[in-house]
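Worked Example 4.2. Consider the chain below.
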Amino acid sequence: MKPATAIDALLLKRHPLPWPDGGSKENRGRVAIIGGSRDLSGAVLLACVAALRAGAGKLQMATVESRAGYFATALPEALVTGLRETETGAMCRSNGALLTSKVKGSDTILIGPGMLETEDTRILVKQLAADMEDTAFVFDAGALDGIAASHFLNGKHLPVLTPHAGEMANLLGIDRETVESKPAEIAETVARDLNAVVILKGAETFIADPGGNMWFYRGGGVGLGTSGSGDVLAGVVAGLLARGATPVEASCWAVYLHGEAGAGLAKTIGPLGFLAREIADEIPRLMGQFPRS
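Applying the procedure from the previous section yields the following C-alpha cells:
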C-alpha cells in the first residue's frame, strides 16, 4: 500500500478549486440530488443545501412525492420533482425512465441520502447509473446497498462512494469491527475493485483512488459524529464536482472543509451539540480563505 498523504491547507493550495468565469450560474455546474423517503426526508435537504454552499450553480432535487411539495417551499433555490413511492415510503423502481429524463444534462448526480435499502432502490440506482454513465456520480447512504454486486461503475468519470464503517461493512458483507480495524486497507481495496474514489468516513477519514493513492484527514472533532453530518459531506462533494473539480480533488476538499467546519463550530458553539445543518453554513467562509485558481 502506498503511503497516505495528509489533507491540509498546504495540500489544497496546490490543488485550487475551479473558479467560474463570469457570474453565470451555468458556469458553476448543475447538480441533481436524489434521495429521501417518507419517514427519512431531512437527509436530502441537508445534502442539497450543502451542494449550494459548496458553490454549485443550479440544483435539482428528486424525492418521494409525499415530501416533494414541502421541499419545493423549504428550498426555493431547487427544481423539485416528486417520484412515485412504495407502500413503505421508498422510491419505486418504476420511476427509472422519469428520473433519467429529469436529471438529463446534470454535471453531477448525488443519489442516496435518506433512501431506504430496498430492492426498488437497488434497481433504480443501477438503471440510473447505466442511463447516465457519462455523468459524475456520488453514491451515498441507501444507494450504496448492493453496489459491490452490480459491477456497473464503469462510466466516463470515476464515481465517488461515501460510506461510513457500518455502510462499508454492509457493502462488503463483513462486520463493522473489521472495517474499523483496517480502514485504509479496505478503502484501497474497494476503490480498486469498483474503480471508484472511496471516502471511508470516521474519526480518521481515508480517501482512496483506483490507482492505490491514499489521503487521510484527522481533524474535525467528535461533534461531527451527529445525525445528518454525512449527508452534508456528500452534498459538498457533489457541489464541488459540479463546479469542475476532479473526483479526488472534490473528495479531499470536501473532507477538509467539512472537518474544518466542525472544528470551527466546536469553538463557537461547543465541542458537542452543534447541528449538521450548521456545518454547511461554514463552507463558503472556509473556501474564501484560499486563493482562487
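The chain has twelve helices and ten strands. The radius of gyration is 17 Å. Compare this with Example 4.1 before moving on.
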